[in-house]
Amino acid sequence: MPDISVVIVNYNVKQLLLDCLNTICTHIPDGLVIEIIVVDNNSSDDSVTAVTGAFPKVIVIANQFNAGFSGANNQGMNIARGKFIFLLNPDTEIVGNAIAQLYNYMLREPSCVIVAPQLLNSDHSIQLSVWKNHSVSDLVIETFFLHKMINTLHYLPPKLNTTFEAKTFSGAALFFRKELVGEMGMLDEHLFWMEDVDFCLRAQKYGKLMYLHSAQVLHHSGQSHKKNYNIVISNQLLSKLKFYKKHFSIFNVLIANLSCFIFIISRLIVFSLLSPFRERFHLKAKAYFYTLKRFFKYLFFNEKRIV
Hints:
By secondary structure, the protein is α/β, with parallel strands linked by helices. The protein is 44% helix and 19% strand.
């Protein structure tokens, strides 16, 4: 039986996935048995064939549809046999003995329910991947372009070079006991971009969430959605509203809905005015118009669809 089940969800990032798998296989700790589960969301770039050819021991679930990030991770966790689960993005690379450090830390600290490594950007700078509890005020502050001056969400960079108890982590790399999902449930499939925050918030009831700075994982962030602004912007904003509705009072939800509307309209105006000058601005203007339509469908028809 494996000690650790690594679950990776892939969508059209074949080369990044192959690089990720290579670093995992290169850094398997001595004495540990690791199973790797790749859930492919109907990629069109020959990812499945490439993985089965290069890594025949990897377990592959080849979906004939896009199950989404949460749904596909849940598929992987459902068949995972390891005592520990390591959720890992396909655009990551293991650095050194990070897996062994995460595993050993969990063995030493029974009160810890999730441990997250230090994520590094492609240039090896520290990525902001650990946050305080999200609140409606964070959205309000960002709506009015104040988030650069007022920090209510992020831990300051110097702290990210220490190990400390945190609140929420990026879902790009999460290490936890499998029994945790048996107690509190898996990822919320109605959320996209906030499913990791929701998972961490629920986990706080069961123990500590620790940030382990000495364990490092390289994260080439957002490669699979880099140019699809419709997906990025609409799912990100609407998932925040769903998250607030799930965890906050009606008053807070009303404030969040109003802030989100102002957020969308203000960006739509700005990027529409800038659209003649650069293609990227034109695409963002179109994405905010698309998001506005989805916002109204969510608000008045309770549409929870994820695109």
